[in-house]
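AGCS family alanine or glycine:cation symporter
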Amino acid sequence: MDFLLKIYTWLSDGLNFILPIALVGVGLFFFFVTRAVQFRFFRIGLKNLLSGQANKTLDSTNISPLQAFMTGLASRVGIGNIAGVASAITAGGAGAIFWMWFAALLGMASAFAESSLAQLYKTRNSEGQFVGGPAFYIAQGLKLPIVGVIFSICLAFTYGFAFNSIQANQIANTLEANFHINTTTTAIIVTALTAFVIFGSLKAVSRASSSIVMVMSVFYILIGLAVLVVNYDRIIPAFESIFEGAFNLQAGFGGLFGTAVAYGIKRGLFSNEAGMGSAPNIAATASTKHPAEQGLVQMIGVCFDTFIICTLSALIILTTGIYTNTHYDNAALTSQSVITSLGDWASIAMSVIIFLFAFSSIIGNFAYSLSGLKYFTQSKFVRIVFTLAVCGIVYVGSVSSPESVWNAADFAMAIMTLLNLVAIVLLWKQVKLLVDDYKRQLNKKEQDEKYEVLFNSDLYPVLRDKLYHQSIWSRKLDETADDGIHKKTGYKIFGANDTENHR
């Protein structure tokens, strides 16, 4: 056991060193490949969301880009914004928040790349629903189906076990800190509730959880703003401490390998999931006219998660100031910061918010893990065993120390993320192809308002033999009915030689 522990520690330390560098490096790489897509197309993506364009779906079977955005946001906004930010500040000081921002800004390009690729390589299942994600673009785009299976296993383990142990742990620690409830008691209750849900109607509860998360997000924002009103005179000093802490010697030599950098980037990744390879599984389910459109939608989700929700959590903690002389950590620290500013009544409000955030994340994480499990096996027996194991890990996570569950999650998250980052870098030409195609068609739309932006895979021979049955993006005439309507997509086909309109 000592030998295995040394091997685990060696691997964990190595991955913790590599991951922040890889995230920043890949983010910079796609910043240049896409020519700063997060700046060039941000206004367009936001306009599509606000104008209702993203709420249009091409068929009744699949969800719209906006619905995929909301589902992805429900997954992102949660305990990571509350506990992850607190953990980053506790370990790396206020300067960790700067590096969280920095990583998110670059990560927006990575999020665009992975979600656009998920759209490009998606396919339909037997029920006519779109499915896709890193396992699909690894298997098809890179012709490495075995690696696709490995990624899906990592997805199932990371979300089913590692991340769910964190969610359960934060519920137990918060209730213990606020109401002195024994963690074992909480573990039994949370495990029972989890089993009841995931062995029941998971789909219905997942939809309800998404709605709950959005309501709780608004409630949390209002509470956070109330804290800032009370501590308004400490807001500017809080920002000053963030920038000072990011570059001083205590944050690490040059801020490159320091604790602030490492924890800021890792906890930011846990919250916004940019480059991790999880959000693409949701992005692929959207019915959209161009893969880049969904890439923009998910990119904006990263921005909202980090620059609004995470920043709010950071200001709650920094303006209160109790993090410098308290034993609280993670979600309990954020909760106590709110209670210190607003009074004891806030303990109930924060406990409810944290419980609902964390529990809905447990359900959402289980859905993610099932998508990974189903990629390589359809066995009902395996699913039952896996579900029981998830319930067991919820109990174990509730009674474990915060440090142990975070370390396990960091390890699992690093493996999964590195696999995905390598894949999207190797597929960079397809990402550039999508960006250039989208930009070219946007230019045409500016000249002709009636022009409809549609992606046509037949225009790019490089994609042949890579997409599933030419995917849903093929416009081949032999796949259309007599009236010229494409059988798979319902798009109008104008003719094989109609390259001017690129439809």
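thats it. The beta strands are 123-124, 130-131. The two ends are 61 Å apart (CA to CA). bye
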